[in-house]
Amino acid sequence: QVQLVESGGGLVQAGGSLRLSCAASGRTSSRASMGWFRQAPGKEREFVSTINWSAGSVGYADSVKGRFTISRDNTKNTVYLQMNSLKPEDTAKYYCALTGPSNKYDYWGKGTQVTVSS
To answer: Is the pLDDT of residue 18 over 90?
Structure first.
């Protein structure tokens, strides 16, 4: 059983920064990838960023490139999302997700709220 727990959300002014964390526990694969997604009220969930546990390869949505940085600490089974230059449109609930054997995001956390005020 895999569990993902996000933390680090909060209220910040536009231009500010936050760092989200996602701690994974249970049977995780070294070949898995961890992703961050977000969902704003009334909108569909969207991809934000991803990182591969072993290779460290990363990917970002165009909307966050240059502002967000994803990283991992394999010793702590934790992935981070450093968010800088935050904008009001970044306001959403942020979820981390882990890929399973099918290379799809099979495991999801409960999310952490990020609110950016203008």
So the answer is: yes
Short-list 1, 20, 2, 17, CA closest to 113 = 20
Distance CA 73, CA 117 (A): 30
Angstrom distance (rounded) from CA 56 to CA 93: 25
pLDDT at 68: 98
41 three-class SS: coil
Q: Read off the amino acid at residue 90.
A: D
Residues 72-111 as b or e (16 or more Cβ within 10 Å = b) = beeeebbbbbebeebeeebbbbbbbbbbeeeeebebbbeb
